[in-house]
Amino acid sequence: MRYILGLGNYAMGDDGIGLRVVEHIGSHDLDTGFEAVEVGNDGLLVMTYFTEETERLVIVDAVEFGGQPGEFTVFSPDDVESHKTVGRISTHEGDVLKLIGLGRELKQPVPPIRIVAIEPQGMAPDTGLSHALQDHFDEYVAAALKEIRS
């Protein structure tokens, strides 16, 4: 099975972009041949998809990578190194790259993973997306679909 996982928090502005992308995919019946899943801010749930049955994961999330707000990039976890400082792995704060590393250390069957990383403009309490992300929303959906179908 193939999955697009949307990470984030609807109540924190642009941090909800991953959730909104998978919600859009599901509500427009674009999820043919894969499942679009709202993971939310519980990054540990990503590890539940590290199974023999999982052929491919695409993760969509707001990521501060130094780009312009609204810019996005797509990469494999093997292509980058995390510099995020987290106190511990928890259900409310985490680092998906560190979770993938933990899965590998635990000898879980980590499938091929692609990450659609979207540079946020703001991640403060707010229920909407910034104009920078709204203006490129269709591009994020197209990128996630391209990655899951490749």
Description:
The protein has one domain (2-149): HybD-like (Rossmann fold, 3-Layer(aba) Sandwich), CATH 3.40.50.1450. It contains four helices and five strands. It has helices at 17-27, 96-105, 131-134, 137-149; strands at residues 2-7, 35-40, 56-62, 72-75, 113-118. β1, α1 (17-27) and β2 (35-40) form a beta-alpha-beta unit. α1 (17-27) crosses α4 (137-149). The longest helix has 13 residues, at 137-149. The two termini are 14 Å apart.
Provide the spatial order of strands within the biggest beta sheet.
Answer: 2-1-3-5-4
**Strand/helix succession:** EHEEEHEHH
| Category by helix and strand content | alpha/beta
Helix content: 25-40%
Radius of gyration: 14 Å
Number of domains: 1
**Mind telling me which CATH architecture this is?**
3-Layer(aba) Sandwich
- The average pLDDT is 91
* CATH homologous superfamily title: HybD-like
Number of strands: 5
CATH class: Alpha Beta
